[in-house]
């Protein structure tokens, strides 16, 4: 570990091996959720923090009495490394947790909320999130990062994550939503989430809608900036402590299709065809969104 930020994809991959310990992953694998537990498990940069804020607002009636949201909603995979006990009492019911795991990895027995997002937008959001924190700002091009994103191992793959949860979309304990749907109809999505996790209080629903809008979360960005996590992970990965990262970005959709060259967009379309198209007959992400709309 050099104390500098990676400047190549190879260096980034080497550092990411230290992001979470095997012991922490083993503790997560041994966890047995209660039937009422809610596990929010989208792919990275697909609306996880947004959904955490919705669920926490619903279950607490809008409490913002936390320094960073991971403190009150443990990340399954990182909890042990962060000194948290997964079976410890939480500030409200239902208990709620964050994860990024696929169906075949996730501890079984709880209730699961998965937010889907256009893979190009997810990639670009992850790139912007890492640039200046896990990557030396400007050192890795978005084209090189896109190539890396397309070939990530199964445990970190957007497509393996999407495939695993799409297979479970009819399960009673799984709620599949879309990032774009959150943008389009936040009150409607909050209502669906409240029904799914068993929060009937109309006032809690109203407050959760108000506190999940972009302006509110941007104003309270320090509650969602991963500082609780980074005090451990930055040291483990050998990163300088002054990196920049924010979970509350522009909140826009469709940005990747504007910012990326045709060759990159074509590679993403080919990958989609090979995974989601081949197994489910979904021509593209728009077709997935249309299927989700029919589930409402």
Automatic annotation (TrEMBL):
Q: Could you tell me which residue ranges the Sulfotransferase domain spans?
A: 35-220
Quote the Pfam families the UniProt record gives: Sulfotransfer_1 (PF00685)
Q: Which InterPro entries match?
A: P-loop_NTPase (IPR027417), Sulfotransferase_dom (IPR000863)
> Which keywords does this Swiss-Prot/TrEMBL entry list?
Transferase
- The signal sequence is none
In which family does this protein belong, per the annotation? Belongs to the sulfotransferase 1 family.
Sorted alphabetically, which PANTHER family does this protein's record hold? SULFOTRANSFERASE SULT
Its name, as the record gives it, is Sulfotransferase domain-containing protein
Q: What organism is the protein native to?
A: Roseovarius pelagicus
Q: What is the lineage of its organism?
A: Bacteria, Pseudomonadati, Pseudomonadota, Alphaproteobacteria, Rhodobacterales
